Amino acid sequence: MPKIGLRMIKTSIAVFLCFLIYVLRNEQGIVFYSCIAAVLCVQQDSRDTLRVGKNRMEGTIIGGVIGMLTLVFMKYVFVNDNKLFCYLFISLMIIPTIYTTIWLKKPSASYISCVVFLSITVSHGADGNPYMFALMRMLDTFIGILVAYAVNLIHLPSTKESDN
């Protein structure tokens, strides 16, 4: 049986702290995004956590900004009720999303930029205030990254620090 490693414990602590912050914020935002960022960012050491967190935040900002701009364009300029046409437009907007990461020399942020972009445009485009969702999505991700980094700075006792 594999042992429960320090990384598993730190990840669990980071997720709990994200839930705690969510409660302290009177449940503002979506705790899911903080927890996901924490899970993905807790790494073997704080240096790797910082690297992964920076990449995640860069991708979130790029995807969030392009997602918001796409929603503005679709709401005020390109008004079309045809779902298939809207989906075609959103699909085409993946190209500038990826291109922006390449142009900014952040190619490793491409995948998360696309995930955030799609989360905003597809899942929350019809929300009452999708722009606020995009901003909250970025804030929630940032919280998860900070929590992961802070938890990774804590030196918990263990017999061996494994990558589990």
UniProtKB/TrEMBL annotation:
A Gene Ontology cellular-component term: plasma membrane
InterPro entries: ArAE_1
Organism of provenance: Amedibacillus dolichus DSM 3991
Chief subcellular location: membrane
One matching Pfam family: ArAE_1
Recorded topology in the membrane: Multi-pass membrane protein
Keywords, comma-separated and alphabetical: Cell membrane, Membrane, Transmembrane, Transmembrane helix
UniProt-annotated location(s): Cell membrane
Ranges annotated as spanning the membrane: 61-78, 85-102, 138-156
Stated name of the protein: FUSC family protein
